[in-house]
Amino acid sequence: MKLLTGNDLKTGAVTWWTGRDWSIHIEDAVDVGEEGDAIGSAEEGARRVNGPVVIDAEATADGPRPAHIKHRIRALGPTVRPDLTLKPADPQAGNWVI
Amino acid sequence: MYRYDQYDQQIVDARVEEFRDQVKRRIAGHMTEDQFKPLRLKNGLYLQLHAYMLRIAIPYGTLNPAQVRMLAHVARTYDRGYAHFTTRQNMQFHWIKLEQVPDILADFAKVQLHAIQTSGESIRNISADQYAGAAADEIADPRPWAELLRQVTTFHPEFSYLPRKFKFAFTAAPGDRAAIRWHDVGLRLVRNDAGEDGFEVYAGGGMGRTPFIAELIRAFCPADRLFSYCQAILRVWNRHARRDNIHKQRMKILVHDLGVEEFTRQVEEEFAHIATLGNDPPRAEFDRIAAYFAPPPFETGLSDEIDRSDPDFALWVDRQTAAHKAPGYAIANISLKAIGGIGGDITADQMDVVADLAERYSFGETRVTHAQNVVLPHVRKADLYAVWQALVAAGLADVNLDLVTDIIACPGLDYCSLANARSIPVAQKIARRFADLERQQDLGELKIKISGCINACGHHHAGHIGILGVDRKGTENYQLLLGGSGAEDTTLAKITGPGFDEDGVVDAVEKAIETYRGLRTDGERFLDTYRRVGMEPFKEAIYG
Ligand code: SF4
Q1: Cβ B51–A74 below 8 Å, yes or no?
Q2: Is residue B400 part of a domain?
Q3: Which end of chain B has fewer CB atoms at under 10 Å, N or C?
Q4: How sure is the predictor about A78, in pLDDT bands with cuts at 50, 70 and 90?
């Protein structure tokens, strides 16, 4: 599957395209198929995202999992600071990245 | 340290307001990211993996307590309670919101801090020996000369749109703590037989994709001609630089392509021409600046004795302090390399402790080191025990300066958008493996440096043991290098062979270190043994 991601213009937070909007949770991301670039340009023009990019991911039972570790780290947060990730209470969350 | 006059303050304040307006226009959609990016970079603002990252300039790594407290305030108020010291003595905040940056910069401006020239094709923040003004082995404090150069070049149109970034480093000691030969221009203050001060000038160094060690191009440049000599260097580079090719823009490539002799000839020719223009600032200007760097009022008649009855304190003193030029004083190094921690990271609360200690015990001075530690440069030996106790309470009393766990690691793929691989977890695993202090002490000086990509912010080319993260088909892989140095015996590390995964590279480091232990002769450091026996025995142990 293909995901559309970028950073929020004002906060810089990593965001994922949900089909209607942007979410900081990758679980909300949808497969953008071939539409990613067009959506990304429109959303960037509307200043709802900065640096949109289409990435490869795998659909898993737990939701989309980016093919590249860089985007898995973007999705969760720094592996060396579990307390600052989106899932600070989940001790297993880091395994999803590696 | 230098203090702003009314003009400096006006310039920095105006710059903040200018950026406030630019941010407003970006958010309102009057500027695209392509238009805004060069403007934000000129104010130290990057977009990294998880958020915007703001880099603050710390010239010569020198900070006063008000500045350290402001760094703590920003970490607490706008970030997540911590920040990161870089290998160029700056500080980075990793969780910054664009809309808050103008307020952050306004706060910094109140204590004479800014983010100017922390990015872009400019003369970057000038770095220096972290012991400058305190070291027993220096000729004089080199920072007034560095500050003079900074003041003349900042916003100077000739240096505002350089072919690429440009880095100066200064020292005034025979032992190089500032890695001067890894800079575009490295400057060592020396004194000639007539008692005049001048600079050894090294040019064409740099790490990154194509590492080069700077070459000596002038053994003595009179100190009061420093600016015009540097101007001549920059002009020769500007004239020939390959602005069309990003991989060839740095001055090191030009020095290499022209050859150091031809490069030097052209610099000397340009220097002779500039001499006719009278570009150098008058001596009075240097004296004005030097007054800000006047030594603090050291007490005289102090004892050099240190009560070492507490064995943990004695260990800390032996490892973490260095010789000071004033009798009865010592330079105290604060390790930011706790075992299993993140090298160079410091919490807001710890910053406050450092500020308090500097105020109380170090004439209000703190330094940041390129090895990502902190220094209290002027501590009375009689106060060391009190300083140590406060550091213990703040979790800052680790004993590992220049040892195997004093690892330089760049932020790597945990934070950096350019990274191929994570650096910090590798550093943490190595540190845990060698956590035993006796083992560390037995190994002696051993500098491990880790970069998450070829840009080499973690100085892997200069590591006794270097590690470079690479991307192998979407997975992290690590190359191992041996034999580098950033000290006065500068050398370029060599790759051992095929790369490793994360655990593999930690094992390989241990094998290299055990090989050293087996081969060393009395008093030999890892680097000395490597230089004596060469790569082969290490390769054999690692891959055999
Ligand atoms: S070396 Fe590469 S990964 Fe590390 S901080 Fe520099 S650019 Fe980022």
Answers
A1: no
A2: no
A3: C
A4: very high
As for the ipTM of the complex, it is 0.96
Q: How many other CB atoms sit within 10 Å of the CB of residue B437?
A: 16
Domain check: are B185 and B259 in the same one? Answer: yes
Q: Give how many domains chain B has, as a whole number.
A: 4
Q: What is the pLDDT of residues B341-354, one digit of tens each?
A: 999 999 999 999 99
Indicate the helix (H) or strand (E) that contains A54.
strand A50-60
Find out whether A59 and A31 touch, Cβ atoms under 8 Å.
yes
Does residue B506 share a domain with residue B462?
Answer: yes
* B90 part of a folded domain: yes
Q: How far is the CA of B52 from the CAs of A14, A35, B254, B337, B417, in angstroms?
A: 10, 27, 33, 25, 11
- Residue of A11, A67, A80 with shortest CB distance to B414: A80
Beta strand pairing status for B366-368 and B374-380? antiparallel
For the domain that residue B171 is a member of, what is the CATH number? 3.30.413.10
**For the segment B362-409, what is each residue's pLDDT rounded down to a tens digit?**
999 999 999 999 999 999 999 999 999 999 999 999 999 999 999 999
Same domain, B20 and B59: yes
Binning pLDDT at 50, 70 and 90, where does residue A94 land? confident
Q: Which residues, judged by CB distance below 6 Å to any ligand atom, belong to the binding site of ligand 1? A: B 410-412, 416, 418-419, 451-453, 455-458
For ligand 1, atom 6, the nearest C-alpha belongs to B457
Look at A78 and B414 and tell me if their CB atoms are within 8 Å.
yes
